[in-house]
Recover the amino acids of this structure.
């Protein structure tokens, strides 16, 4: 991997990362925003009792792991809380703390354990192959899936089969839905969709509904910020590099073309070690495959908290044609929210 040097930006297109199955698995941990998430630090809104109820139920779900952590003695013989089902699904709108609770559960669980988005798990299977991916995660005590995607029947069927094999071997699974921040109420609760799409596993999941308002009260009408010219982006990137910031500088077309040559499981290494990403000449995309690759790239930049500076079309306007009315609308809406955060200098925690 090309290393950043002071006084000169690097180019993302010069990065051709390799990644092993073990490295992919090592990245399946909560993002930095939730490194210290706990049940104790979750603050239920008293106006929505379902938040406190979900917190208490997840504490019960984690009861067996907590019991195993207690020191020996007479009272350690007490039976742990009974877990009725091996799976739990957190169903709620944006900003009610689903990802916080998911990460808190992950932190309590014994290893081996894994935490990732739906896209990261499908990328794992795509990179390694189905059976090697199963063998890699077999034996996990807990698998957490944030933003379970319901818009691609093929991926949903793949993950249903994948989770079915792992749950049959004793793995517990916790998941949230992919309700987007900008949907303005559409698909606010997805439990029925989730259970229908994973019908083969639905009897293994308990649904915990979490009502509430977005605690950030974010302005979903905002837009990504773009600089006036390509030259301004280049000058800004060079100035940052001169101050020993690790910054990349590429044209938008170069990045889009390069993403097509790198497996999405490796995007995490494209952004690794960067302080800023600079892109010149952003324009509308009309190819859906290119758009979906950009979504996956933006997810990795967002998880790594790497801000983006751009010129040309505002980054949140790149999804052209019928994309915003098609089957991947929710993915694009989530990406738009993250693009706004990445270009505005405001990187809030996940849901």
């Amino acid at each position: 991997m090309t290393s950043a040097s002071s006084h000169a930006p690097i180019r993302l297109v010069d990065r051709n990362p390799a990644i092993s199955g073990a490295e992919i698995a090592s990245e399946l941990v909560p993002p930095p925003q939730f490194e210290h998430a706990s049940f104790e630090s979750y603050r239920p809104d008293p106006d929505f009792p379902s938040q406190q109820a979900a917190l208490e139920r997840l504490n019960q779900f984690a009861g067996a792991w907590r019991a195993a952590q207690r020191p020996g003695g007479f009272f350690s013989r007490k039976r742990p809380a009974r877990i009725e089902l091996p799976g739990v699904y957190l169903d709620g709108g944006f900003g009610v703390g689903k990802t916080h609770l998911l990460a808190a559960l992950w932190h309590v669980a014994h290893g081996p354990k894994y935490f990732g988005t739906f896209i990261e798990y499908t990328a794992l299977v795509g990179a390694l192959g189905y059976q090697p991916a199963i063998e890699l995660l077999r034996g996990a005590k807990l698998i957490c899936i944030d933003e379970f995607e319901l818009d691609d029947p093929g991926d949903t069927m793949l993950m249903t089969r994948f989770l079915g094999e792992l749950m049959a071997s004793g793995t517990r699974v916790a998941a949230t839905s992919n309700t987007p921040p900008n949907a303005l109420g559409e698909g606010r609760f997805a439990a029925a969709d989730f259970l229908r799409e994973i019908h083969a596993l639905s009897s293994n999941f308990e649904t915990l509904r979490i009502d509430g308002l977005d605690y950030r009260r974010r302005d979903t009408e905002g837009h990504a910020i773009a600089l006036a010219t390509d030259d301004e982006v280049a000058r800004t990137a060079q100035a940052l590099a001169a101050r020993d910031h690790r910054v990349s500088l590429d044209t938008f077309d170069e990045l889009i073309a390069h993403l097509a040559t790198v497996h999405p499981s490796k995007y995490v290494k494209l952004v690794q070690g960067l302080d800023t990403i600079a892109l010149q000449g952003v324009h509308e995309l009309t190819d859906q495959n290119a758009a979906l690759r950009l979504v996956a790239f933006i997810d990795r930049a967002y998880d790594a908290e790497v801000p983006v500076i751009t010129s040309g079309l505002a980054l949140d306007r790149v999804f052209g044609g019928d994309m915003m009315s098609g089957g991947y609308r929710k993915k694009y809406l989530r990406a738009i929210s993250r693009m706004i955060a990445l270009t505005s200098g405001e990187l809030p925690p996940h849901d």
